[in-house]
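To the wet lab folks,

You asked to see what we're planning to order before we commit. Fair enough. Below is the target structure as tokens, and below that is the sequence we designed to fit it. If anything looks off to you, flag it before the synthesis order goes out.
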């Protein structure tokens, strides 16, 4: 925010805010909402952003882009917290921490609003008396849980409005003992309700209590000589115990707890929840996050707690967070209490078993983030190559791409660099350096002509495969000279483009005007990566050459210093400064240099230093 008029306009707006709680929306010059925040007192909180000397990195970065302000007042800070979450989902502001996937996660629904409930997956929550469990971040895990319930509990699986006016013949599930057959009308609501109660206990993680109740029912059925019912109960007990034994015991207290861990890299992050129910580790949930570049752990966890726990259907008793996330969560806890009629405890263990579980959660988060970033890169690389083929009208998918750049220092020590990407990734075995033979000084187009001619000649002579695309770091002039080199070798059919630095525009051979594409597209990101890698590779080599040339120039012309001794001296000292600052004794440490020669070299260096300006 550089314009004083903009600053003055915002200050005038702030005067009208007063001390009400609410949400504020910072916008950039394009009118895009870039940050949404909440405050107990809007006026004082918003005014704090206008100090250009901020200590907080995030606020400093935000200050640069501030251009306009909007706000929504609320009655309480708790209402502002809920509104903040809604506005972040709506505007997806880049400076806010937010869940990366805006999709709705699936829930398991037990349709308790019906006389004969069933269990199914849904992404919509209705306020009709049904019970919901979730969200599940992994759809496969949700389906596996549903399949497990259907395997253990003989609940109906067919959508029907029960009871039916006229009972119908039961399906195969009934004959297999996997459904009580309410469609027949021969199972009472009470018996069916008991089954639904068992399913609810199972989903709530109360497996110990469930097994205990089923054992009591089995004994009662056996005493009444209801052996078929006792057999059904025994089968359910065995299956539940089998599931429970696969789960790790992490707490002898037998409580319901969530352990949260996070991994962050630049703007991206991954939040992991380890769910402990009844003292056993039952599952893991993974949430991708974005907008983390300038956010500390307190802000990240505050945002996540709000977005996740205010939307769950079942609360744990305790949530364990890393000590770095300590902060003020009073408004969040107040909102939880109001919504659920109960609260949760937030704990920040610094040692003991819970600290070990936090480390386990963080390790899982790091693995998940690594996997996601890798998958994203692979997906982007594939998309980028397809975009290149389509946008550049290439005959084949550009699996092998080469990029060339010229590097020199004020015209001296010019070199060229060529890098190769295969399937969108750097292929180091295909990297090449070139010392210029036909040009000196500043002549980038001529040097590009030379290096492309040398590269293509080598490929033809060695009968090696040609690249699918050649990218030239430069504009129309450099590209034209590269195309000349290819045409001279009758290789004009090789696709070739120039990538101009200033506006990230693409030039095509024979066309005067460049083309512009979305600079954030996978295609343009890949081309920039190529160009930047070629530049980095070339600059590194050019510096090495300049350094060697500077070292050689010190010793050139000295009596009794031939190529062999000069090489020994340069190898020993490694830098021009070390050679020029060397004492006679240090020079004598070089193999083949005695006192007399050391004196000659030392005197020659001193004379040279006196001549330097």
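Sequence we intend to order:
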């Amino acid at each position: 925010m550089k314009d004083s008029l903009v600053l003055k306009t915002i200050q005038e707006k702030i005067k009208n805010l007063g001390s009400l709680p609410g949400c504020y929306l910072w916008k950039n010059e394009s009118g895009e909402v870039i940050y949404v925040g909440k405050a107990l007192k809007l006026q004082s909180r918003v005014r704090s952003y206008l100090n250009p000397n901020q200590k907080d990195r995030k606020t400093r970065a935000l200050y640069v882009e501030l251009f306009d302000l909007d706000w929504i007042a609320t009655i309480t800070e708790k209402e502002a917290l809920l509104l903040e979450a809604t506005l972040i989902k709506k505007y997806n502001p880049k400076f806010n921490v937010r869940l990366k996937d805006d999709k709705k996660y699936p829930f398991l629904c037990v349709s308790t609003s019906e006389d004969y409930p069933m269990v199914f997956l849904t992404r919509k929550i209705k306020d009709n008396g049904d019970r919901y469990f979730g969200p599940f971040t992994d759809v496969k895990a949700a389906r596996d849980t549903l399949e497990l319930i259907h395997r253990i509990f003989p609940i109906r699986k067919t959508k029907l409005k029960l009871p039916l006016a006229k009972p119908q013949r039961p399906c195969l599930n009934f004959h297999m003992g996997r459904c009580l057959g309410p469609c027949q009308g021969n199972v009472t609501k009470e018996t069916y309700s008991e089954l639904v109660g068992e399913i609810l206990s199972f989903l709530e993680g109360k497996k110990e209590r469930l097994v205990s109740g089923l054992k009591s029912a089995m004994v009662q059925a056996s005493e009444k000589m209801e052996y078929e019912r006792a057999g059904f109960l025994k089968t359910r007990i065995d299956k539940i115990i089998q599931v429970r034994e696969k789960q790790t015991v992490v707490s002898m207290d037998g409580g319901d707890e969530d352990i949260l861990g996070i991994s962050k890299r630049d703007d991206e992050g991954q939040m992991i929840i380890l769910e402990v129910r009844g003292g056993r580790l039952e599952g893991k949930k993974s949430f991708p996050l974005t907008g983390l570049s300038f956010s500390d752990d307190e802000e990240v966890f505050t945002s996540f707690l709000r977005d996740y726990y205010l939307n769950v259907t079942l609360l744990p008793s305790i949530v364990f967070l890393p000590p770095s996330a300590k902060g003020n969560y009073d408004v969040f806890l107040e909102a939880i209490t109001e919504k659920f009629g109960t609260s949760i405890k937030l704990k920040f263990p610094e040692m003991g078993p819970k600290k070990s579980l936090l480390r386990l959660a963080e390790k899982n988060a790091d693995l998940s983030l690594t996997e996601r970033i890798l998958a994203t890169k692979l997906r982007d690389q594939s998309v980028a190559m397809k975009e290149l083929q389509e946008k550049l009208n290439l005959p084949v998918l550009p699996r092998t791409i080469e990029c060339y750049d010229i590097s020199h220092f004020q015209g001296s020590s010019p070199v060229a660099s060529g890098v190769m990407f295969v399937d969108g990734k750097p292929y180091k075995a295909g990297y090449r350096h070139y010392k210029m033979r036909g040009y000196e000084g500043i002549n980038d187009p001529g040097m590009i002509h030379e290096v492309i001619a040398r590269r293509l000649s080598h490929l033809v002579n060695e009968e090696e495969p040609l690249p699918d695309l050649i990218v030239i770091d430069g504009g129309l002039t450099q590209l034209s000279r590269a195309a000349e080199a290819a045409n001279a070798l009758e290789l004009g059919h090789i696709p070739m483009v120039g990538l101009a630095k200033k506006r990230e525009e693409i030039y095509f051979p024979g066309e005067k005007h460049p083309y512009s594409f979305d600079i954030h597209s996978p295609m343009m990101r890949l081309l920039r990566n190529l160009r930047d890698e070629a530049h980095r590779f070339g600059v590194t080599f050019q510096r090495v050459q300049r350094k060697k040339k500077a070292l050689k120039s010190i010793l050139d012309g000295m009596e009794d210093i031939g190529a062999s001794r000069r090489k020994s001296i340069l190898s020993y000292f490694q830098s021009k400064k070390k050679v020029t600052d060397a004492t006679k004794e240090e020079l004598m440490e070089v193999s083949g240099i005695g006192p007399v020669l050391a004196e000659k070299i030392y005197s020659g260096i001193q004379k040279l230093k006196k001549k330097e300006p």
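Structural context that might help your review: The first strand starts at residue 22 and ends at 27. Residues 353-391 form the longest helix (39 residues).

Thanks,
Computational group
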